[in-house]
Each structure stands twice: as structure tokens, then as C-alpha cells.
Amino acid sequence: MKINFCSGELYLADNKPIRIEEARGLTIMCTAGTIWITVDGEAGDTFLRPGQKHTIVANGLALIESIGDGRIMIAPPRRFTWPRWIAASFDRRDQTARPVSLQLSQS
Known about the structure:
By secondary structure, this protein is mostly beta strands.
């Protein structure tokens, strides 16, 4: 495996898988070749062609391999952010919740 630090791409050689443990939330983007992804806890395998991506849902071991030579980019999990109306209910000084009043419309 080679890493292009300018583009952030990982160059994968044929039949040389990389393994990532606790991979939940990572997004694998294929930039060249055909990429084969198998994840413990996900049904079936995923095959990517250039321009396609897959976000890993399970938190098991992920094996990522190229069929022939290939390149990928790996994006970290997106940070979870609370909706603004929930975040606003927390007092930033002591991190305790304040009551929030909601009005629900009836249809």
C-alpha cells in the first residue's frame, strides 16, 4: 500500500487487503480500479467502481481490497450534532438540561 499525501489517496495492490477494526462511520471512496469491501456484521460484500462510495454501518472488522490495482480515499465519520432546539436547552456552564416547551400541531 502506498499513500499519496497530497491527494490523501491510498494505493492498493492486488490481493493485499487492508484491515480496519471498529470501522463504523468511515466512508470509503473508490478513486480508481475496483474495490472490494467486506465488513463483519454487514450482510454481503460491497464492490465499488471509481466515483462510488460506501459508508460502513457495522462496527466489526473491515477488510478493503483492490481487484487489480486501485485507489481509495477514507473519510472519517461525520460528527454527530444535536438539533439546535435540543442543543439550546443545555446550559453551557454546568451542562444541565433546562425544560423545553414544544407545541405540536394537530392535523
